[in-house]
């Protein structure tokens, strides 16, 4: 799946991660930020992972969102290859020890190779963060993010009114 001239690359270790990663896709569609989606496995397709990360900046991508579960090495390995910012999404896989394996594999990076790690299964926040990064140089995306936040505020104020009255 890909939109016109993608700015954000969404990758995941397995097709089984897609139900979680779909939240990133949905929020980027909502914010009208172009993206592409691929399955790239650090362990099962290491050469494909290397080629993807190595070519990402040259192809025009600005941010990579990488989701993986279990021994979740994909975000960190991609971050080791490209200079682009990488946002890691720890995915709670079915045989996972409550997702801690995914979280710690992505979070505990060595000095020099950061991965911006969101909460377990928090692909929506990864999408929003990626949009915020590209909005630094794109005022139209920035305006849509401001509207997105205003909508969140409105919803909380509405629920506060409902609870209080
Ligand atoms: C990881 O192993 C994937 O990111 C996925 O979260 C997990 C399970 O993959 P499958 O066995 O379902 O392909 O590499």
Count the domains: 1
- The number of helical runs is 6
| Order of helical and strand elements | EHEHEHEHEHH
Global geometry: globular
**Total E-strand runs:** 5
Bound molecules: 5-O-phosphono-beta-D-ribofuranose
* Beta-strand percentage range: 15-25%
What is the name of the CATH topology? Rossmann fold
What is the helical fraction, as a range of percent? 40-55%
Main sheet properties:
5 strands, parallel
The low-confidence runs, each spanning 5 or more residues with pLDDT under 50, are: none
Major beta sheet, strand line-up: 2-1-3-4-5
Brief description of this entry?
With 165 residues, the chain is α/β, with parallel strands linked by helices. Helix content is 47%, strand content 15%.
Descriptive overview:
The chain has 165 residues and is of the alpha/beta class. The chain has a single domain, classed as Rossmann fold. The chain is 47% helix and 15% strand. It is built from six helices and five strands. Strands 2-1-3-4-5 form a five-stranded parallel sheet, sandwiched between helices. Strand 3, helix 3 and strand 4 form a beta-alpha-beta unit. Helix 2 crosses helix 3 and helix 5 packs across helix 6. The longest helix has 26 residues. The structure holds 5-O-phosphono-beta-D-ribofuranose (RP5). It catalyses: 5-carboxyamino-1-(5-phospho-D-ribosyl)imidazole + H(+) = 5-amino-1-(5-phospho-D-ribosyl)imidazole-4-carboxylate. Belongs to the AIR carboxylase family. Class I subfamily. Pathway: Purine metabolism; IMP biosynthesis via de novo pathway; 5-amino-1-(5-phospho-D-ribosyl)imidazole-4-carboxylate from 5-amino-1-(5-phospho-D-ribosyl)imidazole (N5-CAIR route): step 2/2. GO terms for molecular function: 5-(carboxyamino)imidazole ribonucleotide mutase activity; phosphoribosylaminoimidazole carboxylase activity. InterPro entries: PurE_ClassI, PurE_dom, PurE_prokaryotes.
């Amino acid at each position: 799946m890909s939109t016109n001239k993608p700015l954000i690359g969404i990758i995941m270790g397995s097709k089984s991660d897609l139900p979680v990663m779909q939240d990133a896709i949905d929020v980027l569609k909502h914010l009208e930020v172009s993206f592409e989606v691929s399955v790239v496995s650090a362990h099962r397709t290491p050469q494909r992972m290397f080629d993807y990360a190595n070519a990402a900046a040259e192809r025009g991508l600005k941010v990579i969102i990488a989701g993986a579960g279990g021994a979740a090495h994909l975000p960190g390995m991609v971050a080791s290859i490209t200079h682009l910012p990488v946002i890691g999404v720890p995915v709670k896989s079915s045989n996972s020890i409550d997702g801690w394996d995914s979280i710690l594999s992505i979070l505990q990076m060595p000095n020099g190779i950061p991965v911006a790690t969101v909460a377990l299964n928090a692909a929506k926040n990864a999408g929003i963060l990626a949009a915020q990064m590209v909005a630094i140089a794109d005022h139209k995306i920035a305006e849509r993010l401001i509207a997105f936040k205003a909508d969140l505020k409105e919803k909380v104020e509405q629920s506060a009114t409902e609870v209080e009255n």
